[in-house]
Amino acid sequence: MAARQRKERQQALIAAFAGSSASGRDTIARTESATSLHALRRFIEAHLYNMDLRPEFICRQLGISRAKLYRAFEPMGGVSHHILQRRLTLAYRMLIDPADADQRVGAIASRCGFGNVSVFSRAFRDAYAMSPTELRDAFERDELADVRFSGEAGFGTMSRWLLGLDAA
User: Fold this and answer.
1) Class assignment of domain 49-163?
2) pTM (2 decimals)?
């Protein structure tokens, strides 16, 4: 209830500044959309481990339409793409985290919401231009700085980092 009241107060404040003009209504709509996207991204972050995390699951859990969900994530390449990128980022962090050094790649894949290790490994290689095991080995040999931001893979890594800045 408190969140709803906060949202209503935000909208009223924006409306007071923007006025009742068409541009004011557009400002309110953009603000509401940004707030919704932030809530959607927080929900996704909280459920990355869940293998059922798909557009249908999100719509059902949050009571929103598929169209609204897809529109919200369109600028980021789609909701499925966003989920995959966030899972890969989480897996990357876990693979280089010394606290997870004893975890097998399959266990990390599962903890990140991947039901199949082969699918995970293929997606990881596509995203980072190396396998999860190669990443771990490079990190252990302290070669990660040379690998992390090189070539197209580096651009993809930076893109995922930028898209995830306000995800938490």
Assistant:
1) mainly alpha
2) 0.67
